[in-house]
Design goal:
Distance between the termini: 20 Å
Strand content: over 45%
Order of helices and strands: EEEEEEEEEEEEEEEEEEE
Number of domains: 1
Number of helices: 0
Structural class: mainly beta
Shape: globular
Largest sheet: 15 strands, antiparallel
Helix content: under 10%
Number of strands: 19
């Protein structure tokens, strides 16, 4: 477990104006403070502890689609911070289409879960075709984002990814009183998050259950969760 003080953007408020035709202004209300980090921990809606697994299933483009998320024992130092590796594996119709290794750390004071980047392998017919979406804090002006706030407030807006021209995912907390029915159970008082990016059009909604984490992403819903046995 590694702790290190990292200067972030403090209380600066970020703004981004969409294309003129939209005349919409998106303004972040939550920015990373200066604090120390640890690579093991959790908050109300995110578990960053080795061995924890989430499995989501559903259909995309009419085909069975699986998303398996594993918090690994492995760590990686990104921009001077020892982060925890979280692997996501996506399959479509039983075929591997993407593997991403995401790098997270928890703020010891705020309990924010910070996103320090990811390495992405895109697959087609069993072969890697690209690394689209890869980025790391400290490279080409990229900075850590907040993947899940420690204190969730409806209306808060924040950047999950801060990699200029590469990854600019941003989130807005819409509700904390959603009920989500999944094959893995029915969950109440879920957090609903609206996700967008200025790099492309479209909106995605994700739902996170207290003490569980992600339970729905688009049409994918939780099938199972828990700690894997060694």
């Amino acid at each position: 477990m590694n702790h290190r003080i990292v200067s972030a953007v403090g209380a600066l408020i970020f703004t981004f104006s969409l294309a003129a035709k939209d005349k919409e202004v998106w303004t972040a209300t939550l920015a990373p403070p200066q604090e120390t980090f640890t690579n093991i921990g959790r908050n109300d809606f995110f578990i960053l502890e080795p061995g924890y697994q989430l499995v989501l299933r559903g259909k995309e483009d009419g085909k069975p689609h699986d998303l398996v998320i594993n918090v690994l024992k492995e760590t990686k130092t990104i921009d001077g911070v020892e982060t925890r590796v979280v692997e996501e594996r996506e399959t479509s119709d039983g075929k591997l289409i993407e593997v991403s290794r995401n790098y997270f750390a928890v703020g010891t004071e705020s309990r924010h879960v910070y996103y320090f980047g990811e390495d992405v392998d895109m697959y087609r017919r069993g072969k890697i075709t690209s690394h689209e979406g890869s980025w790391q804090a400290g490279v080409k002006g990229a900075k850590p984002g907040i993947i899940m706030p420690g204190n969730v407030r409806v209306g808060d807006k924040y950047y999950q990814e801060q990699a200029p021209k590469q990854a600019r995912d941003r989130a807005e907390n819409v509700s904390t009183n959603e009920t989500v029915k999944t094959p893995g159970g029915t969950f109440e008082h879920c957090l609903k998050v609206k996700e967008t990016t200025p790099l492309e059009s479209g909106t995605e909604y994700k739902f996170h259950a207290p003490g569980i984490g992600l339970v729905q992403e688009g049409d994918l819903k939780l099938a199972s969760h828990g700690f894997l046995k060694d």
